[in-house]
């Protein structure tokens, strides 16, 4: 993707780069205990060392070593690499291309929400519609192991059934909140309807590795 592409992924990439510039390295995030320097290096290895990142799933030290090397670059150079997108030698369509916008969005929120008094972004129609339609596909992945049914519902009443099954649980929230919640982050504004045991079972079924995990570096609220 060219840096000037007028797409939601392009806009989100630019916004995430601006956020990295604003907070600097060493700031907390909500992504698996990483600070902003570690998060940026993690993203760059995913995009520019794609084969290494795949190998790192099986052999984590390989990915960690690549991220360590990436962190040796000057901070603004790292940001510029993210701004320009993935390496040009990669195939035009990778398996993760359809999730690019969601990945950038969630990691942008990882930074925004790792501070006191965070708040969701103001509504933006096109972005929120993109998130809403992406939430259906992401929800099918996130809740595929749930022993109970799962329904996603936004405030206007529209909904996606992302997991058929007995004793359905409904997760209510704005599209962006639903996406962040599905990725295991806890700093979200959603509410759930259903029996307590069913809610617990549905949430426990979510994978812990969607877009880097869910543990904040600092337990601020």
Architecture overview:
By secondary structure, the protein is of the alpha+beta class. The protein contains 9 helices and 4 strands, in the order αααααααβββαβα. The radius of gyration is 17 Å and the shape is globular. Helix 1 packs parallel to helix 6. It has a 4-stranded mixed β-sheet.
- Helical proportion, percent range: 40-55%
> If strands are numbered along the chain, what order do they take across the biggest sheet?
2-1-3-4
Succession of helices and strands: HHHHHHHEEEHEH
Q: Please report the total strand number as a whole number.
A: 4
Query: What is the terminal separation in angstroms?
Result: 35 Å
Largest sheet: 4 strands, mixed
SS field, number of helical segments: 9
Indicate the radius of gyration in whole angstroms: 17 Å
Shape assignment: globular
Binned strand content: 5-15%
Q: Give the averaged pLDDT, no decimals.
A: 87
Low-confidence stretches: 1-5, 91-97, 214-221
Structural class: alpha+beta
Notable features of this structure?
221 residues, alpha+beta, four-stranded mixed sheet, 9 helices, globular
Topology (elements, then pairings):
Layout lengths: L7 H16 L12 H13 L1 H9 L1 H11 L4 H10 L15 H13 L12 H18 L7 E4 L5 E5 L5 E4 L2 H8 L8 E3 L2 H9 L17
Parallel strand pairs: 1-3
Antiparallel strand pairs: 1-2, 3-4
């Amino acid at each position: 993707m060219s840096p000037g592409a007028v797409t939601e992924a392009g806009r989100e990439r630019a916004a995430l780069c601006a956020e990295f510039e604003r907070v600097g390295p060493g700031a907390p995030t909500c992504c698996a205990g990483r600070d902003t320097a570690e998060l940026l290096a993690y993203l760059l290895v995913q995009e520019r060392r794609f084969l290494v990142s795949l190998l790192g799933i099986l052999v984590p030290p390989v990915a960690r070593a690549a991220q360590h090397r990436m962190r040796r670059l000057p901070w603004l150079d790292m940001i510029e690499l993210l701004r320009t997108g993935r390496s040009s030698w990669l195939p035009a369509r990778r398996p993760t291309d359809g999730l690019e916008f969601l990945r950038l969005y969630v990691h942008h929120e990882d930074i925004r929400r790792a501070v006191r008094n965070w708040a969701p972004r103001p509504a933006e129609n096109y972005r929120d519609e993109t998130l809403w339609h992406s939430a259906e596909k992401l929800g099918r992945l996130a809740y595929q192991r749930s022993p109970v049914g799962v329904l996603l519902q936004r405030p206007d009443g529209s909904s996606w059934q992302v997991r058929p099954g007995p004793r359905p649980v409904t997760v209510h929230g704005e599209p962006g909140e639903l996406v962040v919640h599905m990725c295991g982050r806890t700093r979200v504004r959603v509410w759930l309807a259903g029996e307590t045991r069913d809610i617990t079972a549905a949430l426990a079924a979510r994978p812990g590795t969607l877009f880097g995990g869910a543990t904040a570096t600092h337990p601020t609220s």
